[in-house]
Amino acid sequence: MGEEESLSQAAYRQLEEAIVTLKMKPGEAVTESRLTQDLQMGRTPIREAIQRLSWEGLVSIRPRLGIVIADLHPGDFARVLDARHGLEVLLAGAAARLASKEERSALQDCAGKMKDAASDQNLTAFYRLDKTFDGIVAGASCNPFAAKAVAPLQTLSRRFWFRYFADSDLDAAAWAHLELMQAIAAGEEQQAIGKAGELMHYLHRQAAALIAGVDWAG
Question: Which SS3 state, helix, strand or coil, does residue 44 take?
Answer without folding.
Answer: helix
